[in-house]
Amino acid sequence: MLEKELAQATRLAEQANRKVEQLRRQLVAESEKTHGKLKRELGAARKRYTAANARLKKAQSALRRQATPANQKKVEALVKQVQELADSVAGTARAAYEAAEKLLIVKADAMLATRKASATTRAANMVERATSRTRKRPAAKKAGARAKKKAPARKKAPARKKAPAKKKAPAKKKAPAKKQ
Prior knowledge:
Elements: H1 2-65, H2 69-136, H3 143-146
Helix pairs in contact: 1-2
């Protein structure tokens, strides 16, 4: 019964982990998509701002050369447009920064969760291996069965032969005594 419950709990945990991982991947994908979109928008807004600023400078120099009411209106309209674009660039930059921050947090959380999940999986595998080992062990034998037979005594190893002793060098003869 315990094995069935363990298998069911393992299966449910794996399903929950798969669902959490799927949701996490979806969240990361959405965050990356939002971040990419905001970066593109920021780049486009910066381009528009740069172009409008260049047009404003040209119009201001033309106004200095020739001050007419039409040129004055054009310059005022361009000033308003440049200010709006500057505000939109600032807002888009702020949104892109926040999206990048959220993306970083989500990715870090995903990485931590992945590591936790792998650690839990390893622990579950170790538990399963331990339970399978206990099941595979043979049942303990009765005391009467153990005293049934003694193992035969080992034979002694044959005695080694000693190496033959080395012969001593023959003693040198003394030199004959000199005659006087």
